[in-house]
């Protein structure tokens, strides 16, 4: 933290502009050594200056240099950003010059890591930075912006403040029972508070788990026996002829993939080989791959032929997918209906692929299953990755333990232990408490210039 770091903060390649960023106590003086037109150490903060970067006497590039003095910067340290012409050679030469003059190459995510360690942002906001960069859909972008804006941090902080107040009242009652002017904290009051907190935390976890699916995209697998119209459905969803469609069984022998957006949410759609018994080695490998894809999917679209009775393969597919989030599609509903579905199946719709409107019921059912319309119109205050949700679940377990202690008439100081653990665990979500190893692991997945 006492040295000055440098990295290229833009994507490497041919482009109009690249940015080389420095952060640290010597950022301005290091950049100043190669900037001839003006003394950067004397300029005002948050200003931009035109000039040239030199390596000794050799001209490297014409640039604009931004100077931002700490603590009013992203890292809360002095930051210099050199805006140069895009291109690998020029950008790398400027980077090498900064390294020669005393900067150190930044580690992945080190700029954001310094912002966190310097108290500029908390851990949730740090993770939101990378979420925003890697957003795959408009909804993912909005979720990341909400977290970066501090809404989720405020929610967790408010939760901890409520716990802190309860813990303080318990401590006062334990340590100063002789005082009559303090609020008496009874077991019933603690029980009511714990019950209220459990409900709020459980709701946050549930909605956040749905959000992760939305953020990462819904992995959607289309399965069925040969010739039920899987590839035709894929093509209609993508509005392009992505998969080969013929009347020959076994045409699709490997997965065919594509992406669409529904209400701003990404669907990664995979059309699989038709599932059936076969002696063809290549087709057999495709069938095995199709079956394995079911286990990995967020959503399984089971396609059946509306014009045929259920076959043994159809029944096996229904059995294989019964515990998955699935939509059962009775395709070719423009033909006479002969299918004999068992009673009690959920999320059954009918489609055909004669035109785009024929698969409208499928799109509507996907939106319904994943609450896409609800997500698109409500507040985006969620936890957004497995680390955060895992800690929230641990905090919820602490509340369950506190509830069990209350029900078993345990002493109030035993209940207090579980509440304190909940308080500390919630602190780990926003980074109030953390270990160096966890922080290092978290930021090493960032891009170098961030």
Question: Based on DSSP secondary structure assignment, what is the total number of beta strands?
Answer: 12
- Beta strand %: 15-25%
The CATH first-level class of the largest domain comes to: Alpha Beta
Order of strands across the widest beta sheet? Answer: 3-4-5-2-1-6
Q: SS-based structural class?
A: alpha/beta
Topology as H/E string? EEHEEEHEHHHHHEHEEHEHEEHHHHH
CATH superfamily of the largest domain: P-loop containing nucleotide triphosphate hydrolases
Plain-language structure description:
By secondary structure, the chain is an alpha/beta fold. The protein folds into 3 domains: 5-121, Probable tRNA modification gtpase trme, domain 1 (Gyrase A, domain 2, 2-Layer Sandwich); 151-213 and 385-431, Four Helix Bundle (Hemerythrin (Met), subunit A); 218-376, 3-Layer(aba) Sandwich (Rossmann fold). The protein is built from 15 helices and 12 strands. The protein has helices at residues 27-32, 88-100, 110-117, 123-133, 138-148, 151-175, 187-216, 230-238, 281-296, 312-320, 360-369, 372-377, 386-407, 412-430, 436-443, and strands spanning 5-8, 17-23, 47-55, 58-68, 79-85, 104-105, 218-223, 256-262, 265-271, 299-305, 326-331, 348-350. The strands form 2 sheets. A 6-stranded mixed beta sheet has the order 3-4-5-2-1-6. The chain has a 6-stranded mixed beta sheet with strand order 8-9-7-10-11-12, sandwiched between helices. Strand 10, helix 10 and strand 11 (326-331) form a beta-alpha-beta unit. Helix 13 packs antiparallel against helix 14 (412-430). The longest helix is centred in the middle third of the chain and has 30 residues, at 187-216. The chain is flat and about 85 Å long. Residues 178-182 and 242-255 have low confidence and may be disordered.
């Amino acid at each position: 933290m006492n040295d000055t770091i440098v990295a290229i903060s833009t994507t490497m390649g041919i482009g109009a502009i690249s940015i080389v960023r420095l952060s640290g106590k010597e950022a301005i003086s290091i950049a100043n050594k190669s900037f001839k037109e003006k003394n950067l150490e004397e300029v005002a903060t948050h200003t931009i200056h035109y000039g040239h970067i030199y390596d000794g006497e050799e001209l490297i590039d014409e640039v604009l240099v931004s100077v931002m003095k700490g603590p009013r910067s992203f890292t809360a340290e002095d930051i210099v950003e050199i805006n140069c012409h895009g291109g690998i050679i020029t950008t790398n030469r400027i980077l090498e010059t900064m390294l020669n003059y005393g900067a150190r190459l930044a580690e992945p995510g080190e700029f954001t890591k310094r912002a966190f360690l310097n108290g500029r942002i908390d851990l949730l906001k740090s993770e939101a930075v990378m979420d925003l960069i890697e957003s795959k859909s408009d909804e993912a972008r909005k979720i990341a912006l909400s977290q970066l804006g501090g809404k989720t941090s405020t929610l967790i902080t408010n939760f901890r403040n409520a716990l802190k107040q309860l813990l303080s009242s318990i401590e006062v009652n334990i340590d100063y029972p002789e005082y009559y002017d303090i609020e008496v904290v009874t077991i019933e009051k603690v029980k009511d508070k714990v019950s209220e907190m459990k409900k709020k935390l459980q709701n946050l976890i549930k909605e956040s788990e749905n959000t992760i699916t939305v953020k990462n995209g819904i992995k959607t697998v289309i399965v069925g026996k040969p010739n039920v119209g899987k590839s035709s459905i894929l093509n209609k969803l993508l509005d392009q002829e992505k998969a080969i469609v013929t009347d020959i069984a076994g045409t699709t022998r490997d997965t065919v993939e594509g992406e669409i957006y529904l209400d701003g949410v990404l669907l990664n759609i995979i059309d699989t080989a038709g599932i059936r018994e076969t002696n063809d080695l290549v087709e057999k490998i495709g069938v095995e791959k199709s079956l394995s894809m079911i286990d990995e999917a967020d959503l399984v679209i089971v396609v059946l032929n509306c014009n045929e009775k259920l076959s043994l393969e159809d029944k096996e597919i229904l059995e294989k997918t019964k515990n998955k989030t699935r939509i059962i599609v009775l395709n070719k509903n423009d033909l006479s209906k002969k299918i004999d579905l068992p009673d009690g199946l959920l999320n059954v719709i009918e489609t055909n692929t004669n035109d785009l409107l024929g698969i409208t019921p499928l799109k509507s059912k996907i939106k319904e299953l994943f609450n896409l319309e609800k997500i698109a119109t409500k507040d985006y205050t969620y936890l957004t990755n497995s680390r955060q949700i895992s800690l929230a679940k641990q905090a919820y377990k602490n509340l369950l333990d506190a509830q069990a202690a209350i029900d078993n008439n345990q002493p109030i100081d035993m209940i207090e232990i579980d509440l304190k653990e909940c308080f500390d665990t919630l602190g780990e979500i926003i980074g109030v408490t953390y270990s160096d190893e966890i922080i290092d692991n978290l930021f090493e997945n960032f891009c170098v210039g961030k």
